[in-house]
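Table 4 source record.
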Amino acid sequence: MSTLPKLRVWDEAGHPCRGRYLVTERGEPFFYLGDTAWELFHRLTREEADLYLTDRAAKGFTVIQAVALAELDGLNTPNAYGDTPLHRNDPAQPNEAYFRHVDWVIDRANALGLYVGLLPTWGDKVNQSASSAPQASASSPRPQATRRIGCWCWSAHAPLSHAVGEGLGVRGITSARA
């Protein structure tokens, strides 16, 4: 569980910058200095992830952006521990072993003072018209099943979640959870 302060969108009524930046739960400005590590959960061991996260924390980064379902054959190629994210590519059947690794990486990042900007999946995993990439199984209704993964991303582990990825017609909408 994260010990980092919760973030929220600054929302002072009547101010011209209302809704345009993030603050901590105490109202202090939050500087979003992010590094993208989209394949972080999928390609790195815990030791490699720890080395990367420690380096980024030492360099002053505040956010690491990563995706739960990796872009580069993230449905069929297993992670460093031999786990794929979904059983039979079905979003209604997440592989707990894979997501325990994701949880470990997020917890480690938080322990180092880093937030994780967590994208549930790239749009090409749920929108067949977006690309020819492998997609989550059509055996489960895509919007509802994919929503489960999105809800997991909004759990207590990831105070920053990216609502959508490229390929859905909208790019990079980021929300702060209050």
